[in-house]
Specification:
The protein is α/β, with parallel strands linked by helices. It is about 40% helix and about 10% strand. The longest helix has 21 residues.
């Protein structure tokens, strides 16, 4: 007993930006009985430092002020990060994630203009954060989601370079279950040796993809300009180009292009409902060209639905295949000449990572057919030889239908039967012969759920949890996180090596 009392407490840095996770965090610290001390908190305005100010580069402070005001002098503690073998890859990842907050994609954006700006900011940010972590003797970092928003990613990168332990938790699509891991690269790796044998094969629940409910993906009469579009156009003028008010002819041309775009798509595909920028016009004009594409479901084809960008599934766990066209180029090389790739755009996608060169590059892949927005995803999945995806949920849905799946990134289901991870050594035959059996999928699902944790850490998923209670969830989830940090509980995903 006396021995335990002398154990040094864990100095924790927590990345938590939501009210519900902040409450869980407070309960965690209170319930740990001084075994865990919250030394730094990156999150909202009440936290030590405000996370969004680091990606928007604004002056909004946290309770300790702004990070840059607290760290004005170069310390050099970021040198370990710069010297790491993964530095170039890490740098590319962070620039990609920072770019989502650039002028072309946000009304309230940062002012980074060129590659040198991004390089400068990366080094400044890394040095300032590393300085704070060392000054507070941080020896553990807790993330309430897989790092993918630049400010959390650079903290993860620094922690890894300084050999600081990390715990990452992320909500699953299965009601009242979340996953845990130590390293992003471990996502989807299940060490079966540490899983008890289940006596009963569990039933696989049908996924409720609530965030896709308004997406019909079927032929429908054409859309038209609506109030949301006009509001977003006004916001664009106000924040980005006020001079348009004095250019009525140019503004009229923009409205004409907007109207034409709406006439090209079914009315459920609302191009400018969430955001308007002039760059979006070119994207939707290019996309509209494929709305009349002819395709035959009786042909031999592989189905590749493009994942949304930017989001965690590509910018974090996609790895090098955040460049989705790289995945398509590699895929085309292993297919027989008579097998096509049917590509479908994500129905919620905007112009991010979809410039004119994207469409030019994809047109160079002879085996690719870009299908219209109303093409039936379920039919495409059922009739495909196999499904190819970076990390998308479509892969899991396909496994449940008994379809072989090829994944390019760190999908949570990548260790399941029927899944082939891409490598330059794999063959077409190996993929199509890797057919999942229903019972094997059920057993693998059982192993996964046995290693998952009960609770909700993402408030958007409370709607899926039966008899959800805020207070009960807070207490139970905080206890699980405490045990994970203290290593009294195994994480869901861990390397097999």
């Amino acid at each position: 007993m006396g021995e335990n009392q002398n154990v040094k407490p864990i100095n924790l840095l927590a990345v938590s930006t939501a009210k519900n996770t902040n409450e869980i965090l407070s309960e965690l610290i209170k319930g740990s009985q001084d075994k865990i001390l919250l030394k730094l908190h990156l999150g909202d305005s009440a936290s030590d430092f405000k996370a969004s100010s680091l990606v928007r580069m604004n002056a909004k402070p946290g309770s300790l002020g702004h990070l840059f005001n607290e760290s004005k002098k170069y310390s050099g503690v970021d040198l370990q990060l710069m010297a790491s073998e993964s530095f170039r890859k890490d740098l590319e990842t962070l620039i990609d994630q920072l770019f989502r907050h650039s002028n072309a994609y946000r009304y309230k954006s940062h002012n980074l203009q060129n590659l040198q700006d991004y390089l400068d900011y990366y080094h400044i940010l890394a040095d300032a954060i590393a300085d704070k972590m060392l000054a507070n003797d941080i020896d553990h970092v807790l993330f309430f989601n897989i790092p993918h928003l630049a400010y959390d990613t650079i903290i993860y990168q620094i922690a890894r370079s300084l050999k600081i332990e990390t715990t990452i938790v992320t909500q699953s699509l299965f009601p009242n279950n979340f996953f845990s891991l130590r390293e992003v690269e471990h996502y989807g790796e299940i060490n079966n040796a540490k899983v008890s044998v289940r006596k009963k094969t569990p039933e696989i629940p049908e996924l409720e993809l609530f965030y896709m409910k308004k997406i019909k993906q079927k032929a429908e009469k054409n859309g038209r300009v609506n109030v949301k579009t006009i509001i977003n156009l006004i916001l664009f003028i106000f924040f980005k180009n006020p001079r348009l008010i004095f250019r009525p002819i140019y503004l009229s041309r923009i409205l004409t292009r907007i109207h034409k775009i709406y006439k090209s798509f079914p009315k459920w595909r609302d191009p400018f409902a969430n955001f308007f920028h002039v760059n979006e016009l070119a994207y939707f004009e290019h996309l509209a060209e494929f709305e009349t594409t002819n395709f035959d479901l009786n042909e031999r084809f592989v189905y590749f639905p493009l994942p949304m960008q930017p989001e965690m599934t590509t910018s974090a766990i996609g790895g090098a295949y955040r460049d989705q066209l790289l995945a398509l180029e590699h895929l085309s090389k292993i297919l027989p000449k008579d097998v096509k790739i049917f590509v479908k755009e994500n129905p919620k996608q905007g112009s991010f990572a979809r410039g004119p060169l994207f469409f030019h590059r994809i047109s160079r892949i002879k085996s690719v057919t870009f299908v219209p927005s109303f093409a039936d995803t379920n039919e495409l999945t059922r009739k495909a030889l196999f499904i190819a995806t970076v990390t998308g949920t479509v892969g899991w849905e396909s496994l449940c239908l008994g379809k072989s799946v090829l994944v390019f990134g760190h999908a949570w289901y990548r260790d399941f039967p029927g899944v082939t991870e891409f490598s330059k050594q794999i063959s077409f035959e190996k993929i199509i012969n890797n057919i999942p059996k229903k019972n094997d999928i059920s057993l693998a699902f059982g192993r996964l759920i046995e290693r998952a944790h009960k609770g909700v850490i993402d408030r958007a998923y409370t709607r899926l949890a039966e008899n959800y209670n805020v207070e009960t969830n807070k207490i139970n989830t905080a206890k699980i996180l405490t045990d994970l940090i203290l290593k009294e509980k195994e994480v869901t995903f861990t390397t097999l090596k």
